[in-house]
Amino acid sequence: MEEENKHAMMECIMAEPELIRTLIAHRKQLSREFVALFLKHPIKKIYFSGQASGTYIGMMLKPMIEELLAIEVTVTNPAAFLEHEQFNVNGVYRPDEIAMLCPAHSGSTKGPVKMAEIALQLGIPVICTTYDIHSELAKRSTVVIDKMSYEEASYIETKGHIASLTIFFLCILETAYAYGKLSQGEYEQWISDFEKLPAACEDCIIQTKKWYEANKHMLIHSKVARYIGFGSGYALALEGSLKIAEATALAPVVYEMEEFMHQGTTQIETDSLIFLIAPKAKESQRLSQLLKWCRQYSNNCVLIAHNDHPDLDAVSLHADFLDKEYIYVLEYLIPFQMIAHLMAMDMGLSTIHARNDGASSQLETHVN
């Protein structure tokens, strides 16, 4: 029997550009309480708390926060934090100098909820994004930001992830402007670049579909995929690999670019599938050097880059990426989301019902 709404994941992906437009248009409203809290409290330290995709959001946002706001950031795994870590371990900061940020979806994951409880007991403000503003996490948060998204029919979150990431990016920009860290001209340039992002995402959707049709045989017959990124692109590689693994069970091996050079080179064979994420950045030349090395040993090196990248070949996935510092992760996520769904459909797999459904209940990963 045909599965009802089996393309729900793709529908969410297709809706992401318009969602980004909506979030940009409502940025002042969405960021108002976030900015007010940062103006009221002299925040010097941020803890990001989220499981899986939530962790990767923190990793993607950390460089921008430290650069634009000059605030120290720690990205935590909340489950591990509860057993092995604590806030303000050296006692340097007052509670009002610390903030906990939670990029959440349902707001029911046990780790962030319990970590938020500890934060509030210590007087540390908690800010979360969630589609459920009445969730257990929201009840424990000082500021709750509605993601303007919803619970997705697919068990693989896509649109909601983009919503959290976009909202926090916009909150950072608005706070940097309020702090006086960005001039009027710099702020307007950031917003102008952000407003170009949805069109770049739409082109990426089109180009990924074309690329997939030409290269799906290579993907479907692979047992393992390697993902390589640098800077925020490493967190992007982790998130992208997660989407494909969730949808297809294609085993992921993820590397930060320099780490791959130290530990991943000996395992490459002719049919090794390797995704190399190559936004325009100061590390671009180094990644090109690695790409050329990989191509000596594997025929399946997928460079993901702008249309004008000098190293494109027949299996490269390229589009008219905006390639704006920090926020490029939003557009480069789309190919991985698209590939995940398209592969699952061709493999006869569901993106609505997980094959091992019920794991979260049995393993007690959520509070309700």
Automatic annotation (TrEMBL):
Gene3D superfamilies linked: Glucose-6-phosphate isomerase like protein, domain 1 (3.40.50.10490)
Residues in SIS domain copies: 35-186
GO biological process annotation, one example: fructose 6-phosphate metabolic process
Superkingdom of source: Bacteria
Coiled coil feature spans: none
MF annotations from Gene Ontology: carbohydrate derivative binding; glutamine-fructose-6-phosphate transaminase (isomerizing) activity
Annotated PANTHER family: GLUCOSAMINE--FRUCTOSE-6-PHOSPHATE AMINOTRANSFERASE, ISOMERIZING (PTHR10937), GLUCOSAMINE-FRUCTOSE-6-PHOSPHATE AMINOTRANSFERASE (PTHR10937:SF17)
Record's protein name: SIS domain-containing protein
Organism of derivation: Dielma fastidiosa
